[in-house]
DNA sequence: CTGCCCCTGTAA
DNA sequence: TTACAGGGGCAG
């Protein structure tokens, strides 16, 4: 589920739940999600610590406590929400943190692919690895975007999804942004003109801002994102349906083993 | 670069 | 029963 907008909404929820709180204990229900750390190690690292701030970098969530940071990546199906404590966790819960106000923050993840780890502030960089510019940060300018594209031989969509270059775009928004900008996802980044990259950069920022806005609203409804449609895709998941701009049927193809949706009529 | 893996759920 | 799913790491 989560790309940048959803992660941003989840961060907001985590912030609201943790504001002014102390972590009483951490409970990892699937030990592989924190490996090579053990659940006991993780609990020892965070128990008793006061919450400071939540930070998002691309799709990574950093929960800063006094002296320790918890790194969370939701991967495909993860989410965070607060519940009453002792927590009534669904079977799909990967972990939960008991808070000092009688509530708990649950890391729910039906596929269990999400990860969780504790680190010192200095250790965080090592966990995240090489990560590019966050797509919603002020540093993500069209100039820097053009420079990044200019040094990439890969196809545009793969370039957009490469978190080492631009952090935050996933399969849906990469496809949607390229459609808005009228660029063929298969075209090598290297050969897209400056003008079109400027247009794409603007499309990315606007798209993510819009989506973040509605993700925040959708998340506050009971049931969260899953409850009905909150984002209207123009191409993603719409193979065979008419393009909203030119009415040609949307096509689906594979790039890097993942589905790409685009309109052959208005993306070149 | 491709293909496979992690895992569970859902739909064709 | 198979294919596919919004992510990412790894081996070849």
Structural class by helix and strand composition: alpha+beta
The overall pLDDT, averaged over residues, is 96
Question: How many domains make up the coordinates?
Answer: 2
Percent strand? 15-25%
Give the CA-CA distance, first to last residue: 28 Å
Main sheet characteristics = 4 strands, antiparallel
The run of helices and strands is HEHEEEEEEEHEHHEHHEE
Strand order of the largest sheet: 1-6-7-5
What is the third-level CATH name, the topology of the largest domain?
Helicase, Ruva Protein, domain 3
How many runs of DSSP E, i.e. beta strands?
12
Helix content: 25-40%
Which CATH class of the largest domain?
A: Mainly Alpha
Note poorly predicted spans: none
What is the architecture of the largest domain at the second tier of CATH?
Orthogonal Bundle
The 3D shape can be described as elongated
Gyration radius over CA: 20 Å
Number of helices: 7
């Amino acid at each position: 589920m989560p790309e940048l907008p959803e992660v941003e909404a989840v961060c907001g929820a985590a912030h609201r739940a943790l504001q002014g709180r102390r972590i009483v204990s951490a409970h990892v229900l699937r030990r592989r999600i924190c490996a090579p750390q053990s659940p006991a190690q993780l609990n020892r690292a965070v128990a008793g610590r006061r919450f400071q701030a939540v930070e998002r970098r691309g799709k990574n969530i950093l929960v800063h406590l006094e002296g320790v940071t918890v790194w969370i990546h939701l991967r495909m199906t993860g989410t965070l929400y607060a519940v009453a404590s002792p927590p009534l966790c669904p079977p799909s819960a990967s972990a939960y943190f008991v808070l000092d106000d009688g509530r708990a923050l649950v890391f729910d993840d039906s596929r269990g692919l999400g990860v969780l780890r504790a680190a010192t502030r200095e250790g965080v960089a090592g966990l995240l690895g090489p990560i590019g510019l966050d797509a919603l940060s002020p540093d993500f300018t069209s100039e820097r975007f053009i420079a990044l594209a200019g040094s990439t031989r890969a196809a545009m969509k793969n370039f957009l999804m490469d978190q080492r270059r631009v952090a935050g775009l996933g399969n849906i928004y990469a496809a949607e942004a390229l459609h808005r900008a009228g660029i063929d996802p298969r075209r090598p980044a290297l050969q897209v003109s400056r003008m079109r990259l400027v247009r794409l950069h603007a499309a990315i920022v606007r798209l993510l801002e819009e989506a973040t806005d509605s993700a925040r609203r959708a998340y506050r409804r009971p049931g969260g994102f899953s409850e009905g449609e909150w984002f209207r895709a123009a191409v993603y998941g719409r193979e065979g349906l008419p393009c909203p701009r030119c009415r040609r049927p949307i096509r689906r193809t594979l790039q890097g083993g993942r589905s790409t949706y685009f309109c052959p009529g208005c993306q070149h």
